Amino acid sequence: MFSTAIGRSVLRGVWERIDDYTFGVTVVGLAVDNLGNTLYILKLSGIDTLSMDCESMHIHSTIEFFSGNQDPFDPAAIPFYTMYSPPHMGYRMRVDPPAS
Fold first, then answer.
1. pTM, rounded to two decimals
2. What is the CA radius of gyration of the chain?
3. Alpha-carbon dihedral 84, 89, 94, 99, rounded to 10 degrees
């Protein structure tokens, strides 16, 4: 999105239980230029609903991009770009035993 971006952070955030199988999720990350200036802040917000057997999850999320000097948690902050992810499914991965 920015040609001067040379790095980005991992997404970090929080989740909260809404009911037995539904969780609200918010994560943020940022991109920086070669001087370490924040170019933009990405904020993903979503609702994740587990199946009753916890083997799959219905995911509904929105991704917002804010200028590097904005507070993405300020209700008055307006993102410069918003992506609406179509609802989709996620599936549980199996746990592999460690190699010996």
1. 0.83
2. 17
3. -30
